[in-house]
Amino acid sequence: MGKNRLNEFLDLVEEAFEKEFVKHSRESFRKMVDEAIEPLLLSKPEEVEEKFKTHFKKAIPYLILPSFFLDIKNPVKAMEVQKRLYDILKKEIPPSLLDAFETLSDASSLIISKIMELGIVDFIKVIVERAEEEYKEFFIDYLLTYFTFLICLVGEKKEIAEPKTLDKLREKLDRYVEELDTDITTIDLLITDEDYEVVKNYI
């Protein structure tokens, strides 16, 4: 990332989010790379499946922890900033990872837009009433996709993994992206009133 683009990115993050959130996000990412991502990248190709679950479990606290410090000052502005961040980050993503980046962005945008539309209380109420199990599956698939995307991104940037190890991880990422894409469609269908009215008698 070029210096000007990096400065633009950091300015936008600080504009949208509290300093505590930014601080904990950086700390969590560094620890996750050291404890979960790099060890998996350094695995032999035949070890990837066996070790993935262990390292994913190690990564979960670091994937989730920053959200506890998330305090969006202005939801409407935050959505606008997210779109601008998306435009900046998209230029830095290798072509082989663009589909995963797009799907992760779609998942985040869906949830943020629904919270803005309904408010957090009504959003939770709708999830509990209509899509509790589906949302759990969506959340798990999001974390799996996000983690595997970060592994592949770090792997391409640092070039520390054996080519076959990275191939195995990209294959996993493709599967998770496909599952998350299906989850997005399902969640959107169940929490959008007009769509839910059409399908509720068939559920």
Fold and architecture overview:
α5 packs parallel to α8 and α8 crosses α9. This protein has one domain (18-71, 93-202). The chain has 203 residues and is mainly α. It is globular and about 50 Å long. The chain has helices at residues 3-16, 19-41, 48-64, 75-90, 98-118, 120-130, 132-158, 163-191, 193-199. It contains nine helices and no strands.
Order of helices and strands: HHHHHHHHH
- Number of helical segments with 4 or more residues: 9
Oligomeric state of the chains present here:
single chain
Strand percentage? under 5%
Report helical residue fraction. Answer: over 70%
Report the strand count: 0
Low-confidence stretches: none
Largest sheet: none
Terminal CA distance? 47 Å
Give the tally of structural domains: 1
Mean pLDDT: 85
Radius of gyration: 18 Å
Structural class: mainly alpha
Categorize the overall geometry.
globular
